[in-house]
Amino acid sequence: MTTLNPLYQLAAEQKSAEVTDWSARISWVLGLVVFIAFVYWLMRQGWKWRGRLQSDLPELATAPEGFADGEKLLTLTGRYHGSTTAGQWLDRIVAHGLGTRSRVELTLTEQGLDVVRPGAADFFVPAAALREARLDKALAGKVLPEGGLLVITWAHGDKLIDSGFRSDHAAEHPAWVAAVNHLTSTTEGTAR
Fold this sequence. Notes:
Layout: H1 4-12, H2 22-53, E1 72-85, E2 102-109, E3 112-116, E4 123-126, E5 130-136, E6 138-139, E7 142-143, E8 149-156, E9 159-167, H3 173-191
Antiparallel strand pairs: 1-2, 1-9, 2-3, 3-4, 5-8, 6-7, 8-9
């Protein structure tokens, strides 16, 4: 037992670690903060650059007069996850606020789709511009379970756009796919 006693005494003694060089530590922290700020600034510049590249996209339409008086086919509340070039789920469109994620209230009528986004720019998609709706799992860097995202494809100018929505009640998605696809087939039939 006597051999354990000196080890026990050594372990019981309180020792403090040597104090490190505070100026070096502060320099490292400041360097890290500057690096993070620089990376954030580069990301912000990239977002602005993407907006300038997409500046040829026409202004978004607004709901026409008397839209609220029309018969509503469907309504939805949920999240707007962004818009991309159709078929390219990572090519986010940021022009005219289409890249801003937000809450959303969708209203579908015979005239088209009204997208109301508190805190972001609202827009309207005329029925003639709607192309299709489908269930998907990914859009603009947002990945959800299979079928967890309602993607509506629409034409704006000469560009096809996929916009992603997620309802507060995911069980509503199939009804939206059926209604939008029915509206597009009806619109195409009258356009011929």
